[in-house]
Amino acid sequence: xxxxxxxxxxxxxxxxxxxxxxxxxxxxxxxxxxxxxxxxxxxxxxxxxxxxxxxxxxxxxxxxxxxxxxxxxxxxxxxxxxxxxxxxxxxxxxxxxxxxxxxxxxxxxxxxxxxxxxxxxxxxxxxxxxxxxxxxxxxxxxxxxxxxxxxxxxxxxxxxxxxxxxxxxxxxxxxxxxxxxxxxxxxxxxxxxxxxxxxxxxxxxxxxxxxxxxxxxxxxxxxxxxxxxxxxxxxxxxxxxxxxxxxxxxxxxxxxxxxxxxxxxxxxxxxxxxxxxxxxxxxxxxxxxxxxxxxxxxxxxxxxxxxxxxxxxxxxxxxxx
Length: 321
What we know:
Helices cover 48% and strands 21% of the residues.
């Protein structure tokens, strides 16, 4: 059942509509004018509004415009209720409402139009939810629920623009689990997934709310640390390396039997842009340079023994030439 707001200055008509709606178990609220209606909607958004057009001080059209201009209420369907039934009035009304009902009206007609509007609202909500889910899938790694590479690249360009505009430093951290292939080979890919998920949770717990944490592919992960300079970034990376080294991850063998917990280590590359320079059209190039620097440092950490951090501070990140 739905929550429906009736906005009608005639108390008899308002009472009749409310009685009719309640026969189908809808929750009904009643407002006597536009100002009261807007206050009620601010307190609780209804599923549908039955809105009288001709009201003193503020017409139904004025109320509808205010609702449409507010992103929080623009999606609420409106059925205009009016004694005016000219074509001009209907056309103007349907620019802002999903339907139009003329006074006097019969109860069956009112209920039929309400049912149709609520069906439309339900379909629109389902479509919006589906679109939001698709958008999430397009930018989320399904195994870890972290950002994926597409979201990471997009966020990095946005953060570079902010760093350039406000003169803040920006750090990119690349992480790669050491000898991860042996986990899959020894314990199976299901156990490998458990390790990746545990590491992803550790990254989220170690990072700030403003940081971006992403799985870039396989066992490689990336972080974007806004306004993090050299000392802060290096401290973060060392704390992360140490906390990962102390992790004990539940483990099952290929037969599904529980065995001793697994320990893992991580190699980390930290690239700090102390200052970002360049025009907006070069942002993607700057992003690529910062990521490549962090990648190079990551492999340096791997080649010099694993389970360590390699870092570099770029005093100025800019486009060469």
